[in-house]
What we know:
The structure is a homotetramer.
Chain A: E1 3-9, H1 13-16, H2 18-23, H3 28-36, E2 42-48, H4 58-62, E3 66-70, H5 80-92, E4 95-99, H6 106-112, E5 119-131, E6 145-155, E7 165-172, E8 177-186, E9 189-194, H7 207-220
Amino acid sequence: MSTRVIVWGEFLQEKSQPEVAAIYPDGMHETIAAALRREPDFTVDTACLGQPEHGMSRERLAATDVLVWWGHRAHAEIPDEIVDRLQGRVLEGMGLIVLHSGHYSKIFTRLMGTSCSLKWRVSGDRERLWNTAPKHPITAGIGDHFDLPAEEMYGEPFDVPAPDEVIFISWFSGGEVFRSGATWQRGRGRVFYFRPGHETHPTYHDANVQRVIANAIRWAGPDATRRPRRSRPAFHG
Amino acid sequence: MSTRVIVWGEFLQEKSQPEVAAIYPDGMHETIAAALRREPDFTVDTACLGQPEHGMSRERLAATDVLVWWGHRAHAEIPDEIVDRLQGRVLEGMGLIVLHSGHYSKIFTRLMGTSCSLKWRVSGDRERLWNTAPKHPITAGIGDHFDLPAEEMYGEPFDVPAPDEVIFISWFSGGEVFRSGATWQRGRGRVFYFRPGHETHPTYHDANVQRVIANAIRWAGPDATRRPRRSRPAFHG
Amino acid sequence: MSTRVIVWGEFLQEKSQPEVAAIYPDGMHETIAAALRREPDFTVDTACLGQPEHGMSRERLAATDVLVWWGHRAHAEIPDEIVDRLQGRVLEGMGLIVLHSGHYSKIFTRLMGTSCSLKWRVSGDRERLWNTAPKHPITAGIGDHFDLPAEEMYGEPFDVPAPDEVIFISWFSGGEVFRSGATWQRGRGRVFYFRPGHETHPTYHDANVQRVIANAIRWAGPDATRRPRRSRPAFHG
Amino acid sequence: MSTRVIVWGEFLQEKSQPEVAAIYPDGMHETIAAALRREPDFTVDTACLGQPEHGMSRERLAATDVLVWWGHRAHAEIPDEIVDRLQGRVLEGMGLIVLHSGHYSKIFTRLMGTSCSLKWRVSGDRERLWNTAPKHPITAGIGDHFDLPAEEMYGEPFDVPAPDEVIFISWFSGGEVFRSGATWQRGRGRVFYFRPGHETHPTYHDANVQRVIANAIRWAGPDATRRPRRSRPAFHG
C-alpha cells in the first residue's frame, strides 16, 4: 500500500523573484515532489497557496498520509479554519514534515505552542548537518554528516518545546549552531522539522536533503510494523 | 523578594450549585489562595471570570510571577486576545499551574498543541497519587503516595505532548491510571498540570494538595538560584 | 529477511517448583518462543543458564538481532565478561527485551546505570495494563488496556532513568501503579522493559502479552525502513 | 547551610608536562576550587588520585553534596569498589559534575550505561558554546553564547543516553558541533557533563567556565526549595 503524500508550497517567490525562478522554475514543491516520485512506495501530489481552500480540502486531507509544508511570506493568509483542519488531521495520525521558513507557519506554531523564533542571517554560509541519531529511520543512508555549500543561517536559541529526538545539529561557517532536524509526537501524528531550504539556494536539488525528506515521510507515515500480518495457523498456543 | 501569585477561578458553580457552595462558600480560588497566603514567600491575589478583562489585564499579568488556573464550564468565554496575552507571558517566563478541568482551558490547549482529551467518570472513586519524582521540588514534603477519599476519575490516554517530567501517577479504585502531575517548559515559562480538584469534593482543603500547589509555585516562579549573589572580594582569581 | 531472536530463560524454578512446572513444563522460555515461532518474520531460538557460556557465545550473539531475557534467582551467576559482551552487542544495535524480574539482571542494571529497584508484593493482584502510547509499534493490535487476572504486584517508584517512551502503565487491584512498558535507546540498540511474567502465573500464555513481546521484537529489530529500496531510474535528479 | 563540594583531579599531567604545569601550577583541581571558594554558599575541598582511597573514603563521600570530577589518563586506576561507592552516593542524591575527558571515567560510563565515545582532535580550535537553555539555573548569568579562544575539539556523535536537558551546544572552528552541556537524573542524584577543559589550555581560568561550574553545583546540590520553611501560624486551615 502506497504512502499518500502532498507537498505544499507557497509558490510566490518562484514567480516574483527571477533568482528563485532560475533554481525552481516549476516551484520548490515540484522539485521536492519530483524527487519523491522516484520512491516506489509513495504516491505524490502537490498543492499551493491560492488554490481553492489552498489545496487543503477536507476530502484531500482525509486521503493524505503525510503532508510536507514549505511557506515563508504568506503564513498569515492561511485561514484559521484550515489550520484547525490540519491540526485535527495531525492529531488523528497524519504525518507532517515542516521545512525551513515553515517554522513560522500557523500549523507548526499551533502544534508547538511556542513562538518558534530563532536567529537568522541571509548569508550564504556553509552549512554542515551532523547526524546525532545514527540509528534513526530518518538518517537511513546518511553518513555522520553532510554539507550544503551555501544556505541561510538559522541559529539557536530555537524557541520550540524540547524535541522528542534531535536528529541533526547544524554547524554554520559564520559561527552558529542549530537543531536542524527534530521530531515531536502530537496526538497520533508525527511531526518532523527540517531546517534547510532557503529559496535562493538549490537545496532541494541536493541528494542528501531529498533522502532525508523521503526517510522522514516513511517514518511519519502509516507504520509498516502495525499492518496486519498473516500468521501460520496456531495448533499449539 | 516575594513570589507574586494570582489564583484564577471561574467562580460559577460555587454560586449555582449548593453542594459546591457548601464546600467552597467563597469560591475554590479563595480556598486555594487562603492556603497559599500562609506561605511567607508568596504574595497572593485572586481573579475571576466576569471581572473586567476577566481579571487578566496586561498590567496585572506583567506583575505576576505565577498564575494558578481553575476553569470548567466557561473555557469558551475567555477571548482569544486574552489567551494570546497569557501565552505571551508564559513564553516570557511567567509560571502556570493548571488544575483539574483546566486541561480543556484555552491557555492549556494552546500551550500543548494537542486536544488534551482524557477519559473521565464522575464517580467518587478513591484516588491514590503515587510520587514518581521523589527528588523533584514539586514533591518536597510529600511521601511516596497520598490518598484522596473521593474524586472524579480521569483516565489515560491523556492527549498531551510527552511531559518533560511525570511527577505523579494516580491510581483510581475503579480501575484507571492517570499522569496526574506533569511538567512542560514552554519558552522561558514552566507549566505544571495537577489533576485533582473536582468541584463537588473538598480536595483543595487537603493539606497534601495544598502543599503540591505551593511547591509547584516555587518551582515555576523566579528561580532562586538565578538571583544575584554577593561574592567575597576576589583577590586571587 | 528474518529477524533472528533468542529467548533466554533461567530455567531453574520450572525444575524445582511443581507449581511453576505445571504452568511451564518446558520452561518459560519455550512457551514464549513457541508463540514467537508463529510469526512468519522471526527465526526463534532459546538459551538457558548453565549451557556453555550460558548460551551467549560471541558467535551466537553476533548472529542475533533481538535478545529476550527472563531471569530471577541467578542474576549473580552471569559472569561480568558475558555482561560486557551483551552490552557491547546492544550498543552495536542488538535489540533487548527485558521481562519482569529481569529488572535486576546484570545486563539491565548495566544499561540503566541505576539500582532498578521497585516495590513488590507476591499477591495475585489483578493487573490492568493501560496503553499510554496508542500509536507506538509496540501497541499494535492492543486496545486501550488489557487485564491479567492474577500477577505479582510491582509498584513505583521504579528507579530507572526517565524512559524515552512510556508504553504501558499498570494498575493493580491492591492500590499501586507501575510504568510496565518503557523504552530506552542505548548506543544503536533499543531496549524495552515489559513487567508482566511472574513464574507462578500463566502470563506468557496470554495472547496480549505474546503480542506485545512480538511487537517489541519488531520495534527493536533491524529497521525495515532502513533496508535498501529499489528506486525507479532517476533521469532527472 | 553550605553546599559541601569536593573537586577531584587526577593531578598527573600537571606534574609530568611543563606546558600543563605552566597553566595549572597547583593542579587543575586547585584552580577550579579557588574559583568556587569565592562563592559564599559553598564549602570547597579537593581530592586527587593516589591519596588513600584516592581521596574518596566512605566518610568523606557521606559528607559531600556535590563532586566535581576531572580525569584523563588514569581512569582504569580507580578500583571498581570505589566506583560502586560513587554510584551509590549519586543514586542517594549526591550531585556529580563531570568535566571534559571525564566522559571516559568509570563513574560516568557506569551511570550512562553506554560507551560515551566521541570524536576528538587536539587542535586549538576556537570553541563557541551556545546556550540552548536560557532559563535553566546552569546558565544563570551566561549570555546567548561565550567563546573559548583555543580548545581541544570534541564532536558528535556522543554516545550517551538522550540527555534530560541539553544546556550548551558547541561550535568548533574546524567544522564540528557537540552537546557540551547536558544533564541526566540518576536515582536521586543529578549529573551534569560539561565539555571544556583540555589540560593544555587555560580554560578553568575563564570566568564563564567558572560560573557554569558554580551554577551546576547549585543546581545539583541540596535543593533550596526543599528545605523546610517556617510558615505563619495557621489559624484557619
